[in-house]
Design goal:
Elements (H helix, E strand, L loop, with lengths): L4 H21 L4 H12 L3 E5 L6 H11 L4 E5 L6 H5 E8 L2 E8 L6 E5 L6 H4 L3 H6 L1 E4 L2 E4 L5 E6 L12 H4 L2 E6 L5 H10 L14 H13 L4 H12 L11 E3 L3 H17 L7 H12 L4 E2 L1 H5 L4 H11 L9
Parallel strand pairs: 1-8, 1-9, 2-5, 5-8
Antiparallel strand pairs: 3-4, 6-7, 10-11
Helix pairs in contact: 1-2, 1-3, 1-9, 2-11, 9-11, 10-11, 11-12, 12-14
Length: 327
């Protein structure tokens, strides 16, 4: 069922108000903010990577305050245990006698901030796998559904910093986007100094209700994905496995989940732009954050100083948007 232009326009107006509120909370990161909102509207989880102090946590907290959603924050540390996240059975007195009663952990919220996720051990990180993929957790053989909607927005410091554990590929693949948070310009730093104080959080009002967010995410699903654009997505993901010059640097290519992520994110971007159809430009705009963490480069390529972002850019330049038989 296709969506009407008037409905898309109404939803796009609400999203613009959200973007405006977030840009007032985090100065000078307009592109980053738009990608975070794009990922949210595509119903995806997001990983933010950057050095400490660049505003990763503040952005997620501002997003939580601007939406009518229950939010929880988990500070990941080396001594954090899986049960500290998912919850644990606690022996309690009940009318039937002493029984183990499941006590929900902080993962049971609509918006979960996993702060400095790569400071926890791999065992603790893996506690998020089932939750992020299937929106549920299983403890001692009993499955507990998580709230709807459910989003994980994680922050991490670069893995070369002391005291961090690289996220395994299976965990990374659960994130729709991996976004790199860049340092601020001089002009932005000046604005921060003039309008911010240490320990004082910016005031962010609620912009969208839970019903607004649900309506927008449902509308994203109705955005039309032309067959020729779907073909471009398929060829772009396939090119990470060989058949292209850029793929020579890639040891392991992207999975089918990457293709689904590209489609969902491209639809979300189209709605934000106020369009009922997904375009090649939408796919290209979200390709880097979708593929950045889903391709693993050969050791030789990394020794040469090549990064995943550079390889993705080469793929975008090399793979034609139109199929060869139509180009």
């Amino acid at each position: 069922m296709l969506i009407e232009e008037s409905e898309v326009s109404a939803h796009a107006g609400k999203v613009r108000r959200l973007l405006s509120a977030l840009n007032e909370a985090l100065y000078g990161q307009e592109s980053l903010v738009e990608l975070v909102v794009t990922g949210l509207l595509a119903r995806g989880h997001i990983l933010l990577e950057g050095l400490p102090g660049l505003g990763k946590t503040e952005l997620v907290k501002a997003l939580a305050r601007s939406l009518d959603l229950e939010n929880k924050r988990i500070q990941f540390t080396p001594d954090l245990l899986p049960g500290d996240i998912t919850g644990n059975p606690i022996l309690q007195e009940t009318p039937q006698g002493r029984e183990f009663v499941f006590q929900k952990g902080p993962l049971f919220a609509n918006l979960v901030l996993a702060d400095e996720i790569n400071r926890a051990s791999p065992k603790t990180q893996s506690a998020l796998l089932e939750a992020m993929q299937e929106q549920r957790v299983t403890v001692l053989g009993t499955t507990h559904p998580l709230p709807t909607p459910f989003f994980v927005l994680a922050t991490q410091n670069p893995i070369e910093l002391e005291g961090t554990y690289p996220l395994p590929e299976a965990q990374l693949d659960r994130f729709l986007f991996k976004l790199e948070v860049r340092r601020n310009s001089v002009a932005t730093l000046q604005k921060i100094v003039l309008h911010r104080e240490i320990g004082v959080e910016p005031v962010v009002e609620k912009v969208l209700s839970r019903e607004d967010l649900t309506g927008i995410t449902e509308a994203v699903r109705k955005i039309h994905l032309p067959e020729v654009v779907a073909n471009y997505i398929a060829r772009l993901v396939d090119a990470t496995h060989g058949g292209s010059k850029a793929s020579v640097a890639i040891k392991y290519g992207a999975s089918p989940r990457a293709a689904l992520a590209l489609a969902s994110a491209a639809k979300a971007r189209a709605l934000i732009q106020g369009r009922i159809n997904t375009s090649f430009e939408d796919v290209a705009a979200v390709a880097t954050p979708v593929l950045l963490h889903r391709i693993l480069l050969h050791y030789e390529a990394r020794i040469e100083g090549r990064g995943s972002g550079e390889v993705v850019a080469e793929l975008l330049a090399e793979v034609p948007r139109q199929p060869l038989d139509l180009a």
